[in-house]
Amino acid sequence: GGEMPSLRLRHNSATTTYAGLTVTVAGNVPYAQIQAERFSGTSTTSEVQFGALNVVGTSGPAGTMLLLSNSNSNAQVLGTTTFGGTSPIGVNVNGSTWRLNGAITGSAPIYKTGDGVLRFDGANDATFSSPVFLNRGEIRLTGIASGGVATSDGTGPYTLNFGTLRLASANTGANTTSTFFNSPNQNLTIAGAVTIGYDRNGGTPGSNSNNVTIGAAGLEFRTVNSPYIIFDAFSSFGDGLRIASEVVVRDQPFFRITDHNLFINNIIRGNGTITRSEAYLITFNNNAANPDWSGGFTALQGYNRVTQANTNFTFGTGPVNIGPTAVLSLNSLNNIAG
């Protein structure tokens, strides 16, 4: 008793496919490991591929911990992935990338740990409603190449405690955006040191592309525990990231806008203070007042712009502090004073 089952899938420095293989982690197994590893040669980018992954899970209090280990390898599940049961499932990717290419099915909470990348590529909205928690490493969500509403993220809420959220889409269509986290009740909560950014996924966006959008009307982009958020354009300086959900601030979040153009397209509410730094642009693009935001805004650096003319209380009812290396561009003093 007490031994952890471990499966080793190996390659000799060339991408290797285990055709037709379904790997099943049986029900009520607390720990299991799947290893993708190189046994000869020098390649560090070759991939181990197999057909499907089935984690039966449990309804007991202990849950399941799945260790996805890489040794000089990446790994890909070509077909479906199933996260069964109702208890939490921990997914630890120790390094490199585990790519879930097919549809994911599940509703149990998923906790991502480890320094590696867990990549969702499939059409998951119809079958994947799990709450997802990022506790370390990276989650990469792949959008539709031509732009539009991504389905790789499923329909459950996401909580980012520590790590990187990469939103990837070539976005080749003209006048388009790739939208993530727009299903009903699919709120995004930021609770720690987190990087969020747009990745062009190897492509070139179409003319007038709006890059990437988070959320939609009726949803929330929430900050808790006074998080430190880096908005990072992974592919090209100045790519845009738009927040279409309501921004709910009840703490003291710090926005570090290193090379994204960040647009806030909905209202802000709560009693927290937003503090921002770095040189790139933040645009308050919502056309409604923010009388329910009382914490205020502090710009230590960078360009801060209000696009809506004569919109009262763009910065709520709290103080607005602009540092010596920051710029504030208003359409009207009403944007501050109401």
SSE blueprint and pairings:
Elements: E1 6-11, E2 16-25, E3 31-38, E4 47-55, E5 64-71, E6 74-77, E7 81-83, E8 89-93, E9 97-100, E10 104-106, E11 110-113, E12 117-120, E13 132-134, E14 138-142, E15 148-149, E16 158-168, E17 178-180, E18 188-199, E19 212-214, E20 220-223, E21 228-231, E22 240-243, E23 246-249, E24 254-257, E25 261-264, E26 268-269, E27 274-277, E28 282-284, E29 297-306, E30 320-329, H1 334-337
Parallel strand pairs: 1-3, 2-4, 3-5, 4-6, 4-7, 5-8, 6-9, 7-10, 8-11, 9-12, 11-13, 12-14, 13-16, 14-16, 15-17, 16-18, 17-19, 18-20, 18-21, 19-22, 20-23, 21-24, 22-25, 23-26, 24-27, 25-28, 27-29, 28-29, 29-30
Features:
mainly beta, 30-stranded parallel β-sheet, 1% helix
How would you sum up this structure, described in words?
The chain is mainly beta and 338 residues long. 1% of the residues lie in helices and 47% in strands. The chain contains one helix and 30 strands. It has a 30-stranded parallel β-sheet that branches. It is elongated.
Summarize the structure.
The chain is 1% helix and 47% strand. It contains 1 helix and 30 strands.
Alpha plus pi helix count: 1
Shape by Cα distribution: elongated
What is the gyration radius calculated from CA atoms? 21 Å
Helix/strand-derived class?
mainly beta
Query: How much β-strand is present in the residues?
Result: over 45%
Q: Specify the helix fraction band.
A: under 10%
Oligomer: single chain
Q: What is the strand tally?
A: 30
Distance between the termini: 69 Å
